[in-house]
Amino acid sequence: MARLLYLAAAVAFIIGLRRLGSPRTARGGNRIAGAGMLLAIIVTLVDQDVVGWGTIVAGLVVGGVAGGLLALRVQMTAMPQLVAAFNGFGGLASVLVALAEIDRVAAAFDVETGVVAVLTLAVGAITFSGSFVAYAKLQGLMTGRPIVLAGGKTANAVMALGIAALGVWAVAAEVAPAFWIATAVALILGVFAVIPIGGADMPVVISLLNSLSGVAAALAGFIISNEALIVGGALVGAAGLILTIQMGEAMNRTLANVLFSGFGGATGPVAMSDKPVKRATPDDVAISLAYAETVVVVPGYGLAVAQAQHAVRDLATQLEERGVRVAYAIHPVAGRMPGHMNVLLAEADVPYEQLLDLEQSNPRFGLTDVVLVIGANDVVNPSARDDATSPIYGMPILEVDRARTVVVVKRSLSPGFAGIDNPLFYKDTTMMLFDDGKAAVESIIGALATV
User: Fold this and answer.
1) Given 3.30.70.141, 3.20.20.140, 3.40.50.720, 3.40.50.1220, which CATH number is that of 282-448?
2) Which of 50, 163, 332, 420 is the most exposed place for a label (fewest CB within 10 A)?
3) Active site residue 378
C-alpha cells in the first residue's frame, strides 16, 4: 500500500509540474503537486512508524499557519527572496537527512551509502548557504554587486577538492566526523561561490540553486530508500536545470560565465551619453496612448518595486475601452527570478492571452504605435544588438526601439544591473517620464480622462 501511495504521489508531482508550464493552469498544478507531497510525507511517517497521528496533525497545523502567514505577508517584490529561502531550506533538509542516517548506522554503512551521503551533504550544504547569500543580495542585506575576492576561484577549487578528499577519507576509513567536516567546508564553499555573482544574474542563480535542491533531495531519497523523495527530487532537479539553461540562453551567457565572470562588477562612474533626452509629462503620454491603435507594455523590476501592476491593468482597461489593442511583452530575465513579471501581472488579473514572450513580441514592435516601458533597462538596451563592444552584446532583447513611439517610465537615467548606459533613452522616438512607476501610471490615467 505504501508503494502504491508513493506512486500516486509521484504521478501528482508529474501532473503538477506539467500544469506549472502555463500561467492558466499553474495554480492548480501547484495545488496538485502540494497534495502529492503531503501524501508522501504522511505515508512515510506512518509507514516507518516515526510519529503518531497526533504529531502529524500538529505538524500540519503549525506548517499550515506558517505557510499561510508567509503567503499573506510576503510582497510580490519579495517573492524571489522567498524562493531563495525555499531552495536553501530544501538543501538543509537533505543535509539533515544524510547526517541523521550517518549517525544512525554509525560505522556500519556500506560504501554506496557513504558515497551518496557525501554527495548529499556537499550539494545540500552548498545549496543552503548559497541560497541565503542570494537571499541577502536580493533583500538588500548585502550589496547586489559581485564581490570578487582575490584568489577566490583558487580558494573555491581547493575547498571542492577538500570536500572530495574528506569524503574519500570518511567512506574508506569509516570516519563519521569527516562527514561533518565536509559539510562545514561545503557551507563555506556555498557562500564563496555565490558572492561573486551580481544581481543581474540572480534569475539564473535561483534556477540553478532550485535544481541543486532537487538533486540533494533525490540523493537523500537514495540514502533512505524513499521512492517519492527520489522521484520528486529528480523532477525538481531536471526542471531547474532546464530553466537554468533557458535563462542563460535568454542572456546569451554560459553557466560558467554566470558563475565565474563577476559580471557587473566594474567599479567607477558609468560613461553616460551627453545627448539630451526628450522629457515627457503624463499629459504627453496620455495623448500618445489615447490616439494609438496598438500599445505594448514592457514591465521590468521597477514595476515590481513600485507595485504598479494593478495601476497598469487599470490603464490597459481604459485604453481597451477606447478601442486600443493592448499586449504585454515579457523578457525571460525581467525581474529577479524566472517568471517574475508573469506572476506580477497574473496577480493583477491581466488576461493570459495578452502576455507575449520574446519571440512573439519582437515581430510586433515594428507595427506598434506606442511601447510603454516601465522599470526595464538592460532587456530593452539596443547595445546588445548594435554594439559589438558592449558587455551585453548578443543578449536577446525586446527590440522596442523599432516601435513608432517609446515611452520609458523610470526614476532617473541610472544604469541597470549591467552597469551600462542605454542608447534607447536618447533616441528621437523615445519619451522619458521620470517618476515612480505606480505614480507615473496613475498620473497617466488621470490625464487620459481629459483627452
Assistant:
1) 3.40.50.1220
2) 50
3) yes
